[in-house]
Amino acid sequence: MASRSLNKVTLIGNLTRDPELRYTPQGTAVCTFGLATNRSWKTEDGTQREQTEFHTIVAWTRLAEIVAEYLTKGKQPYAEGRLSTREWEGQDGQKRRTTEIIATEVIFLGSPGARPESIDVPEDLGINEEKPETETETKTETETEKETEKKTREKPTTKTKTEEAPVEGEDIPF
User: Fold this and answer.
1) Do residues 81 and 101 touch, judged by C-beta distance below 8 A?
2) Span 16-40, mean pLDDT?
3) Dihedral over Cα of 24, 103, 111, 48: its sign
């Protein structure tokens, strides 16, 4: 009988550097970025203490491209994923080991005044993203075609007369 287990990490912090986007030989996008999280507490003598942890986060495929495009050093994302430890042999012959967070979701946070409006993201990506901060950017032809295609696939949201009829015995005016 298999026992249940859970490998899930949830972080909110600040980017320590700009994301690095690379592509595998097969053409798969992979983006690595650093995230710093802080913890503060008071000691028994009343002194305020703070500790910073540094995390390496790896995003793959379309999520990697979106992260690389919209996140920069200092921005505050919410990152969710799983822990992954990998080993390799360095050029000096030494065995190396690192633990990273493989991101499954990244949500861009920040103050409302500094945050650009959100843009539509396909639901199958499992992420939220924001528009570029410059309003002068124009959409490419393929982006416009995709939006038109999406609108034609969407069902109208208007209610029919039968949906608006009150339920029998219901006399609430709203």
Assistant:
1) yes
2) 96
3) negative
